[in-house]
Specification:
188 residues; mainly alpha; Tetracycline Repressor, domain 2; 10 helices
Length: 188
Amino acid sequence: MFDACRRKKQPQLVRAQLLEATAHIVAECGPAGLTLDGVARRAGVSKGGLIHHFPSKQALIEGLFAAIVQAFEDALAALIARDDDPRGRFTRAYVAAVLAPCDGVFSCKLMDACALALTGDVALHEAWHAWMRDQLVRHGEDAENVLGRIIRYAADGLWLEARTHPAGFPLKDRQAVIERLTAMTYDL
C-alpha cells in the first residue's frame, strides 16, 4: 500500500525540467550566472536530484548543448528525408533549419539565447565543429568545399542578424537571400 502512494520517478521528465531551467538561466544571465542551486530551485527539484542527473555546472552546460544539437539534428533529418536530390542536400537542410521557425525542446527565443550564450565555450565550439564535420561526411558532402562553407556561414549570418536586429532586414530581401543560398546548394 505504501508503494502505491509514492510518487513515480520520471527521470526523463526531471532531466527535461532541469535542462529547461538551465536554458532559462543561461538565456537570462549567461553561463556565468548559472548555479546548481538556481537550476534546482527553478526546476522544482532538490539539489540532490539535480546532482543525480548533472553532477556539475559543466555537465549542465554540456547537457543543454547536447539538447540543442539534438533538436537541430532532428530538424535536419526531417528536412533531408523530404529532399530527393542528394547534391547539397545537407547544406540545403542546414539553411532551411537555421532560418526556419523552430519547434522542439525549448522555444525559439530560448534556444537562440542559449546558442549565443554558449558560443564562448571553447570545448563546445570544438564539439560543434566535430559534429558538423561528422554530419557532412555522413551526408556525402565535402567538409572542405568552399562553396558549402560560404552557404552555411551566410545562413549563420542571417540567423545572427535576425536575432540581434530583428527589424533590421526587410523580409522580402531576407527571403531573396535564402532562395539564392538554397539555389547555390545544387552546385555542391
